[in-house]
Each structure stands twice: as C-alpha cells, then as structure tokens.
Amino acid sequence: MSETHLEKALIGGGCFWCTEAIFTGLRGVKSAQPGYAGGRRENPSYEQVCSGATGHAEVVEVVFDPQEISFADVLRVFYTTHDPTQLNRQGNDVGTQYRSVIFALDPAQDAIAREVTQEIEASGIWPDPIVTEIAGPAVFWEAEEKHHDYFARNPETAYCSAVVAPKVAKARKMYRDRLKA
Question: Mind listing the UniProt keywords for this protein, alphabetically (predicted)?
C-alpha cells in the first residue's frame, strides 16, 4: 500500500470496540483507530464521552487503500455490521455517543454516503428505516491506548464475548472474501 494513495473514513456504529475489530481484519484497511468525533469538547476522555454530555460519538477512523477497498465498500460493511435503524443506541448501549453516524470528510464522501445509504435502504436488509446521520467533517480525537485493539486483547470479557464476538463473526462470514490473509 502506498501511503500517498490512502484515504480515511470516519464512522460510528455504536461501540467502537466492535467497529474497530471488524475493520481491522479487512484487506485494504491499513488501520482502524477508535476515538471520538462530532462533539463540543476538545480531547475528551472515554468517561466524558460515556456520560453523554460531550456530544461526541464513539467512532473509528478507518485508513484504507481505495485500490483495494472503496469508500462505498467501507460503508457497505459498516451498514451491514451494525443496526443503522436504532436511533442513539446499539443494543443495550444507549445514548447519543452510540449513534450511527458517517462523518463525510469532503463533498465526494458525502455524495457516496448518501448513495450507499439509499442503496442499503432499498435493498431491504433492514426492515426499519435507516437513521444513520450523515454529517460533515469532524475533528477526530483518538481514544485512550487501553481502547486500541480492545477485542483482540480482551476477547474473554463479558462484553466482548456477548457483543463484539458475534458482530466480528458475522462480518468475517459475510466478508470472508475481503479478509486479510
């Protein structure tokens, strides 16, 4: 992968441990970093974001090679590996910090995000309307080191076993042709 051709996607699909674990395993993804975006507080902590008072969402900054995986395909994976029909929640994780959101980094990403959203909506994958927010660019605040590779380092914790592992297994099954060797 040439560093000069890499692109970024900034997406939030609930708990960033799930999203990071899914994208880390995909071919063409150089990195998937957990963090926070879309809120009012500079350099927020996990505890501050979890309070719901910062306006930030838990997000993942996906750095990818568009010659191996397009932004549209990043979004297709995103839309099929979390429930984009749940407003401000994913399962038992409730609050605006768990909202489904795409922070389009430029007008081209905004257009693609809207097209893929319409495509997924029309496909009938989800029986309820998609409520994913498509927002403009946002500052990405990297999460604390303890949140990086959380699932890989803590697969036996109750949350990882009950929530993260099934989502990762679903993604690996759905996208086995896109997994890193």
Answer: Oxidoreductase
* Residue 28, Ramachandran bin (φ over 0: left; ψ between -120 and 50: alpha; else beta): left
Contact 55, 97 (CB under 8 A): no
Q: How many residues does the chain have?
A: 181
Query: Tell me: the pLDDT tens digits for 109-131?
Result: 999 999 999 999 999 999 999 99
Cα 143 from chain centroid (whole Å): 14
Residue 21: left (phi > 0), alpha (psi -120 to 50), or beta?
Answer: alpha
Which residues are catalytic, by number? 15
Q: Rounded to two decimals, what is the model's pTM? A: 0.95
Q: Do the Cβ atoms of 9 and 49 come closer than 8 Å?
A: no
| Alpha-carbon distance values, 149 to 25, 121, 144, 167 (Å) | 11, 31, 11, 15
Q: Judge whether 113 and 75 are in contact, CB under 8 Å.
A: yes
